[in-house]
Amino acid sequence: MLWKEKYKIGVDLIDQQHQELFRRVTDFIVTVRGQGDWEERLAKVKETLAFMQEYVVTHFADEEAYQAGINYPGLAAHQQIHDNFKREIDEYAKKFAATGFDEDLVQSFGGKLMAWLINHVAREDQRIGKFVRQEVR
Length: 137
Fold this sequence. Notes:
It contains four helices and no strands. The protein has about 140 residues and is mainly alpha-helical. α1 runs antiparallel to α2 (about 40-70), α2 packs antiparallel against α3 (about 75-100) and α3 (about 75-100) runs antiparallel to α4 (about 105-135). Helix content is about 80%, strand content about 0%.
């Protein structure tokens, strides 16, 4: 799994949600890069797309509510990053609907998910954890 303990920000709900996101994206990447009939692997692709469209909305809402509750100064910028990512997920969904689940497009989607998740959690979300730790002192 792509998850690393260093990604924890110290907020149980958020850390658990991040771990679930990493687990799902890891499963997706393994499936897409796997062997076998593309049509058989396609079910996992569709499942992951549906999950991402739903779960990121829930996760982002929880994360933003937490940030608001602690008066996190970077909330507005963080919301914008979340909104941009939700739009990107929706754009992929539209492309899949229009062109089908072409293997190259699916590979692109997987790479985007993996890169965004790692970069966002390792950089942006770590700022939340740092803010919380400074406030506790």
